From TrEMBL:
Residues passing through the membrane, by range: 6-26, 58-79, 85-106, 127-149, 161-181, 193-215
Keywords on record: Membrane, Transmembrane, Transmembrane helix
Full protein name: DUF4386 family protein
Domain of life: Bacteria
Taxonomic lineage: Bacteria, Bacillati, Actinomycetota, Actinomycetes, Streptosporangiales
Organism (species): Nonomuraea salmonea
Keyword set includes Transmembrane: yes
Keyword Transferase: no
């Protein structure tokens, strides 16, 4: 099987598994950083869902594997162009690696908060604040990935006009939302709608790019 096929399957797999995991999280009552919950409400939620966190988190590393396959496949295709195209593609790949590393920390922090909520709650404030800000800043990496791979894809003829527009618009929304991250430290939700729309655009953009890779 060619690597570009694995990359296309990886992109679609990332979207599907990611949506399923997030749906399970929301159903279990996990207070996501974009939920707007305050510290007390988040602490009570984590206290009640400590056991439920483990089951969906088992498959979370699969999303990072799928996304890395997707990004590496794009890089392998887009690297063959001129120097500028390769540089933009490398920017996109680096951003995906950074987002995987950042989200690993966010996932680990959730277990830290679940433990803190059950044992004294003293460190919950710091962990909750760190999780909120880190989640917000991570959107900047998504914006970089969108921008890098979109510019490189346009140059290489892989990206259509509508997909380019989607990529640029989603990148702008995610970057703007990331700027508000320090103001969400207490559990606020400033510019959360912009981030949500940008994230949904990111998923649609991945599916479109994955289909392109599968049809090559």
């Amino acid at each position: 099987m060619e690597f570009t096929v694995l990359a296309g399957l990886g992109g679609i797999g990332f979207v599907l598994v990611g949506l399923i995991v997030n749906a399970i999280y929301l159903r279990s009552g996990l207070p996501l950083p974009t939920s707007g919950q305050g510290l007390d409400a988040a602490t009570d939620s984590y206290d009640g869902i400590a056991g439920a966190l483990k089951r969906p988190s088992v498959v979370v590393p699969v999303t990072w594997l799928c996304l890395t396959f997707f990004a590496a496949g794009l890089l392998s295709v887009l690297w063959r162009g001129d120097a500028d195209q390769g540089a933009w593609a490398l920017m996109g790949f680096a951003a995906v690696v950074l987002q995987n590393a950042t989200f690993t920390c966010i996932e680990a922090l959730r277990f830290g908060m679940a433990t803190a909520a059950r044992h004294g709650r003293g460190s919950m404030a710091g962990l909750w604040g760190m999780s909120n800000v880190l989640f917000g800043f991570n959107q900047a990496f998504l914006a970089m990935a969108l921008l890098g791979f979109t510019v490189a894809g346009v140059s290489g003829g892989l990206v259509s006009v509508w997909q380019a527009g989607l990529g640029y618009a989603s990148a702008a929304l995610l970057l703007v939302s990331s700027l508000a991250a320090p103001y969400n430290v207490e559990g606020g939700n400033r510019l959360g709608l912009a981030g949500l729309i940008g994230w949904l655009g990111w998923l649609a953009w991945i599916v479109a790019y994955s289909v392109t890779l599968l049809l090559r």
